[in-house]
Amino acid sequence: MKKALAILMIFALVASVAVAEVSIGAWGRGIFLPVSNGPDDTLTDTAPSWGGWPGDEARIGFTLAGNSDNVGFQIDGNVDGGAFSVGDQQKIWVKPMDMLKISLGNMYDDTLRGNAAFGSFDWLRPVVGAGEGEDVTFSRIGMNRGGQNFEVAIQPMDAFYAAVYLANVGSGFNSPNLAENLTKNMQIAAGYTIEGTGQIRAQFLQKGDNSEDTGVVEVAFKLTMIENLYADFGFAMPLDTDVSGDYKKIAAYANYAVDAAKIHFLAIYNLLEDDDSFNIAAGVDYDMGDGIGINADVRYYNDIWTGGEDARITFMAGASKGFSNGKIGAGVQVASMGDTYWAIPVKMEYWF
Question: pLDDT per residue over 268-282, tens digit each?
Fold first, then answer.
């Protein structure tokens, strides 16, 4: 009887969720290192792709979202290492009209974001120092978020998107911000798609704590007119070098698909006041069929980029088996910067 009642309750819950247009999704990634050489010892560990090494746990994440034509919410949660924590987004959104969306909470907006994720960026980044993969050509909206945030986004046509994002409008319970700081540390971004050619984007990001007149300007162009080629070019520079430093950043990422292979190239060059820093990377993915894929990359960072006396060279190679809702893979990663570091990552990933 108790079992029957429990089953009925589950059916009732599922039915109510469906009527309310509430959905549950999930994404997670864990990497097991059966052996790796750390700063001082040979180690075994677990990690996601990002974060510190050694020490972080696998990412066990999920999303609860409600969606309707005009109102919705999103809650991202994590249970990394058995401890519950909030994820990237917890927000309410309302669309008073089709072209206008207003959001409040802890959030990002990746509509215009640049993406150069490939190779070691999708494996264990800290071992090889491959932290460049997203925001390389154009930063996501919400880069300077803190506490609670507010965004107004407008899309009057499919080709045009613009948003104003106010960072840290409040820090939580009983922690308001000063009204005079409402429009400080803000972000304004826009993008326009030229049919058959590509997309142009531009934005202004304020930097610093409640800064009044300092900020960074970014512009980018994504080329889509050539079949099988994805190319994105970005430029960034600060308006106030006293706060953000004196630099100009030029970035380019491209991938080209040919038969079962996809070839990647990434270059970032920072023109600094004294010496310039740069890194370049190249990689390849190859689909062998039946869900089996191999990928590899090599990256070079000059000594100014690393902030030390030695340049850094990294290498990774891995193989994966994909399924309908995830994958498993294994590889090898090596980094040389004076000392040599290496790891044998075993990667597991899921999505629902």
Answer: 999 998 889 999 999
Domains and CATH numbers, the chain: 37-351 (2.40.160.10)
143 vs 151: CA distance, rounded Å: 13
Cα 149 from Cα 140, distance rounded (Å): 14
The model carries a pTM of: 0.88
pLDDT digits (tens, 9 = 90+) for 84-117: 999 999 999 999 999 999 999 999 999 999 999 9
Q: Which of 163, 171, 166, 172 is nearest to 144 (CA)?
A: 166
Question: Residue 341 and residue 36: Cα distance in Å, rounded?
Answer: 8
pLDDT given for residue 15 in this prediction? 45
> DSSP assignment, residue 81?
G
Q: Is the alpha carbon torsion for 295, 326, 132, 262 positive or negative?
A: positive
The amino acid at residue 290 is D
Exposure on the CB side of residue 113, measured as CA atoms within 13 A = 14
Stated length of the chain = 352
pLDDT per position as a tens digit, 24-81: 999 999 999 999 886 678 888 888 898 766 667 899 999 999 999 999 999 999 999 8
CA distances from 124 to 56, 77, 95 (A): 11, 22, 39
The residue ranking higher by pLDDT, 52 or 10, is 52
Rounded to a whole number of angstroms, the CA Rg of the chain reads: 22
Q: Tell me what percent of the chain is helix, strand and coil, each rounded to the nearest 5.
A: 10, 55, 30
- Give 163-170's long-range contacts (Cβ < 8 A, gap of 24+): 163/109, 163/111, 163/187, 163/188, 163/189, 163/190, 164/188, 165/109, 165/141, 165/189, 167/142, 168/144
- Calpha distance 137→134 (Å, rounded): 8
